[in-house]
């Protein structure tokens, strides 16, 4: 199921895979825009770079992994990279977490 | 078929109920005369795994079955399982672990050492046929969709039903929706992956993706192609 987490969503088509960075997976899952969350995965930026992808920060704790195509644009590469990024995962936190009403966004963490 | 073993001592664990099976004393020469296929395993009230090199693949298969019904998980080493014909699910790939072999420690599985009292397994009457299990997972995408995930579109749902009805003996590893209401289905086994993407609408891409090691490819979705790919999973 982890591969699915790295399939670019339609709303990420232009920006890239939305991730947190400079924070723990636990912080990422509880500060993200997804609600509820069912876990968070941590991966290293080095592993992302090794796949010839870029990590472009746009906020203090938010970045986009750029270079993963949307499946409508390049389905073969999109599927393969999703699997490769899942292999980069070094730690996961599992379990449903529901955001209290006063919290803010995101899904994955780098 | 009458069960040869009683299920006793259930435990609450992460992925379902864990139970210990105990052979009645009347069982003197247990043999498995019924081929163990994925369909039967999905129907079984007791699952049996053995440890050793086959454990991981067995667990992957079990995980793919775990949403079909409430599995009772037993990990037990017994040579009799080596002879069980199978479609590539639990048991057939197992062997007895060597004395100095490290046995993987999975948090949701209890391991049992061989004892004379536990020698075989049998299956009780069906609870949930595999095909229904797959379809139930699909239906759950609709029923449970709310804030958690996007509900599948009617177009994707109908196509997925057509696909799953023809795949009786291939329990899904997972099924989910994409961000637009398309449906994503996956079968994983022995390090190989087969995924099906059904676009939310007719103009969106529908395809099969398959991967093994560094080989990966996509092809058009057809029942014949998918059946070939799922057979390839076991090859």
Q: How would you describe this protein?
A:
The complex is a heterodimer of chains A (110) and B (235). Chain A has helices spanning 2-5, 25-31, 45-50, 75-88, and strands at residues 17-20, 37-43, 54-59, 62-66, 89-97, 108-109. Chain A is of the alpha+beta class. In chain A, the strands form 2 sheets. In chain A, strands 3-4-1-6 form a 4-stranded mixed sheet. By secondary structure, chain B is α/β, with parallel strands linked by helices. Helix content of chain B is 23%, strand content 23%. Chain B has helices at 38-43, 55-65, 130-143, 154-164, 223-234; strands spanning 6-13, 16-22, 47-49, 72-76, 111-112, 174-177, 183-189, 192-198, 207-212, 215-220. In chain B, helix 3 runs antiparallel to helix 4. The model of chain B is unreliable at 1-131 (pLDDT under 50). Chains A and B meet through helix 4 of A and strand 8, strand 9 and strand 10 of B.
Brief digest:
The complex is a heterodimer of chains A (110) and B (235). Chain A has 110 residues and is an alpha+beta fold. In chain B, strand 9 and strand 10 form a beta hairpin.
């Amino acid at each position: 199921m982890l591969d699915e987490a790295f399939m670019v969503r339609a709303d990420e088509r232009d920006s890239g895979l939305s991730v947190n960075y400079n924070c723990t997976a636990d912080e990422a899952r509880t500060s993200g825009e997804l609600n509820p969350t069912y876990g968070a995965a941590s991966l290293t930026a080095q592993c992302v770079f090794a796949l010839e992808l870029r990590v472009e920060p746009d906020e203090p704790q938010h970045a986009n992994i750029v270079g993963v195509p949307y499946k409508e644009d390049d389905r073969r590469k999109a599927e393969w990279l999703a699997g490769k990024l899942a292999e980069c995962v070094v730690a996961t936190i599992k379990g449903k977490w529901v955001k209290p009403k006063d919290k803010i966004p995101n899904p994955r963490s780098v | 078929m009458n069960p040869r073993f009683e299920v006793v001592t259930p435990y609450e664990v992460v992925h379902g109920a864990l139970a210990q099976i105990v052979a009645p004393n009347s069982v003197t020469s247990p043999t498995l005369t019924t081929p163990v296929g994925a369909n039967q395993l999905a129907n079984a009230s007791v699952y049996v795994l053995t440890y050793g090199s086959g454990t991981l693949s067995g667990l992957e298969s079990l995980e793919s079955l775990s949403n079909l019904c409430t599995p009772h998980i037993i990990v037990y080493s017994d040579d009799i399982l080596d002879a069980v014909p199978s479609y590539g699910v639990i048991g057939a790939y197992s062997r007895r672990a060597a004395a100095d072999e490290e046995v993987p420690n999975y948090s949701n599985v209890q391991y049992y050492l061989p004892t004379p009292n536990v020698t075989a397994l049998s299956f009780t009457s069906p609870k949930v046929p595999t095909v229904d299990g797959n379809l139930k997972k699909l239906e759950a995408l609709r029923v449970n969709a709310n804030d958690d995930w996007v509900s599948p579109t009617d177009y994707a749902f109908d196509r997925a039903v057509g696909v799953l009805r023809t795949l009786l003996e291939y329990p899904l590893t997972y099924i989910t929706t994409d961000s637009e209401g398309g449906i994503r289905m996956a079968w994983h086994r022995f390090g190989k992956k087969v995924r099906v993407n059904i676009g939310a609408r007719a103009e969106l891409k529908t395809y099969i993706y398959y991967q093994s090691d560094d080989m990966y490819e996509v092809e058009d979705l057809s029942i014949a192609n998918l059946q070939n790919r799922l057979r390839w999973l076991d090859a």
